[in-house]
Design goal:
Two copies of one chain form a homodimer. The first copy, chain A, is of the alpha+beta class and 192 residues long. The first copy, chain A, has eight helices and eight strands; from the N terminus they run ααββββββαββααααα. Chain A folds into two domains: 139 residues, Jelly Rolls; 47 residues. Chain A binds a DNA duplex (30 and 30 nucleotides) through α8. Chains A, B: Pfam families: cNMP_binding (PF00027).
Chain lengths: 192, 192
DNA sequence: ATGAATTATGGTCAAATGACCATAATTTCG
DNA sequence: CGAAATTATGGTCATTTGACCATAATTCAT
């Protein structure tokens, strides 16, 4: 059941079995239907989430109502809205399932308690935020500097596994280009 | 001399005077001419930097050689290239002075030593990375969702103090638009 | 103060992109 | 399986944006 999470912790951290058991016990498993939201924009992000299987996305709405995707979180990843979670303030972004997904959630109080009892979990948390920070910088730079075509090629290179799981309009919303442009790029590439 | 840094620490943290003295003693002051680089792209980021006064920028080069700016660091801010600093790997980005600047630098070993001795400094570091993370997400979302004009207006609203200190081509390089587009936007706004 | 460098603006044209619409293909789920 | 929804593609046209160039204004450093 939570097997994926167990092995994630066992292989990716220095947590011992007792710690892992504690962490797992504090989690609540949850199933999400395709399209179902875990966090609605405007709500407060009260949980930390681990995706056991499936695929979530974090997205927000532009001034004109259009969707723009900050992040795809597939299995064996975490999903939170950091600002909302950290400050317990209304979230600007929505977290929802792209595919039917199985996740584990911890309430913030529960997770904070775990962090106090298990120093190694703090180490993991910091690793995660560091990685996320570095990834965001890379992404920001790519968004600033690359052409639409380069962005798409980067995406394909970086997330070959996600490609067949995502509708093109979501990839476009992630890259910051229109669906039309994305279709054009793919068309041009086929002809080469 | 390092007064700006002292008051930054005293008013922004819970560090006590002894700690502050230790931190200041480990720092090396440095002057940078306009345009002078603190870290060249390709080099390893070996220092943590605090800007006492002046203004730095962190930028990288696109595939075509064009410059794109990730971040402006004015006085009372920190500047590092996180990935390069953390892993001591070659930096993709350059840190250079926009204005003549006075900075304080700590070598990584020295700063790590301070972190071990002064828990409160770790608290500060985590705050900084959290803030930076949240800012980057916001920026990314704005870059994805906003029009060129909205981006410029956001910038003006967010950094009114930086506006008169930056040449327009740098603001354009920060916003991810061409200088021409930025000029057009400003022209249109004047006429309203 | 002054010459050199940088910066800001504008014109013109081509290219890239998006909005809107229609349609076909595919997928989803009861 | 079959109907409904979603997804992918393409056409057309208007708009935005960028590249390239010239010029004026401003700022910089000695």
């Amino acid at each position: 059941m939570t097997t994926g999470f167990d092995t994630y912790l066992r292989t990716g951290t220095n947590l011992n079995d007792a710690d892992i058991e504690q962490i797992v016990l504090a989690a609540k498993p949850l199933s999400l239907q395709r399209g179902e939201a875990l966090l609605q924009h405007g709500q407060i992000c009260r949980h930390k989430t681990f995706i056991v299987n499936g695929l979530l996305r974090i997205y927000g709405f532009g001034a004109d109502g259009s969707e723009h995707i900050l992040y795809f979180a597939p299995e064996n990843n975490w999903a939170v809205e950091p600002e909302s979670y950290h400050q317990q303030s209304p979230s600007q972004f929505t977290i929802a399932a792209v595919e039917r997904s199985e996740v584990l959630v911890w309430t913030k109080p529960d997770f904070d308690r775990l962090l106090q009892h298990i120093p190694e979990l703090t180490v993991l948390s910091e690793q995660l935020i560091n990685r996320s920070h570095i990834n965001n910088r890379q992404r920001l730079f790519s968004t600033l500097s690359a052409t639409a075509e380069e962005k798409y090629e980067d995406f394909v290179r970086s997330f070959p596994d996600l490609l067949p799981r995502l509708p093109l309009h979501m990839i476009a919303a992630y890259l910051g280009i229109s669906l039309k442009t994305l279709t054009r790029i793919r068309h041009a590439q086929v002809r080469r």
